[in-house]
Description:
Blueprint: E1 61-63, E2 66-81, E3 84-91, E4 100-103, E5 106-114, E6 124-125, H1 132-135, E7 144-151, E8 155-160, H2 166-171, E9 175-181, E10 194-203, H3 209-214, E11 219-222, H4 228-231, E12 234-237, E13 241-250, E14 255-259, E15 264-269, E16 276-280, E17 283-285, E18 290-296, E19 301-307, H5 310-314, E20 318-324
Parallel strand pairs: 2-5, 4-9, 10-13, 12-20
Antiparallel strand pairs: 1-2, 2-3, 5-7, 6-8, 8-9, 10-11, 13-18, 14-17, 14-19, 15-16, 15-18, 19-20
Amino acid sequence: MKYGKHLGLSFVALTLLLAGCNSSQVAQKQEPAAAPTQATAAAATTEKPKLDQPPVPMKIQREGNVVNIEMTAQITNVEINKGEMYNAWTFNGTAPGPVVRVKEGDIINFTLKNMDPSIPHSMDFHAVHAAPSKKFIDVMPNESGTFTYPANRPGVFMYHCGTKPVLAHIANGMYGVIIVEPKNGYPTDKEIDVEYTLVQSEWYKENDLNSFMNDVPKYVVFNGSTFGLKEKPLLAKVGDRVRLYVNNVGPNEVSSFHVVGTILDRVYLDGNPANILTGMQTVMLPASGGAVVEFTVTEEGDYSIVTHQFNHVQKGASAILRVTKDGKDNNTAPMSH
């Protein structure tokens, strides 16, 4: 059953969780697209985001341990495959939405502005303790809601719209990553040379609830598209220790996360420093599961980052980590995998 052109018309995915953005090379924040008017609500589109690829780091206002975060819920055309647009439901105009990065022990004051003129939206942060019936409630069209909660557990967590049907809101693009940095950091912090954020997700038939429920995904992607992290690879130099903040937002498939050509020296499951694994070849991430993975690159070349479920790789779930002597892109053609 078709669930409407946009279900009645109704965030990514460190730092970079990921726009393939080096933590020392943070992209400028994208300005939210203008809200669609009632006159144009039938199309409910805005221009394609100007940034090359999401997610971008979220700019937050900090006052001691209190952080103020504001997002919009809006409809935006996003490019999911080369030349193929999707009329997505988004946070801040991108899918994934922006990467939210806070510290363990912070108090989050979160405001959601619902710019969708047709249906409600909400926010479900996996990183917090909160009563959903009070803190994850719907924000009506053209209204705002503000909610406060503590972030007391470190990790790499998913956030998403929790409005029913939740499947439709996630599958249409309303998801992202929130990183809660450990109070005392990770044991390996001083060893890390470069870090990125990667968000795995799926695209189905546009705004079609029946497809979301019953079909295999048309595309499985990192950071929102089949091509972004291949055309503009992640970069590192020979000998670097690389850290990836990874989250599989689904909504339906698992991820067998793997970096071709190296071994994951250390893995923190769900990004919690207490959950340590070493010497891993592949990390299984359920829908909404996250991890911090670390490894060293010892030779020049292109390293494919994939889910080892290769039917999903064929549908787009791969990225390139390009390793050069100086850590700069030498513009060689990426290797296929």
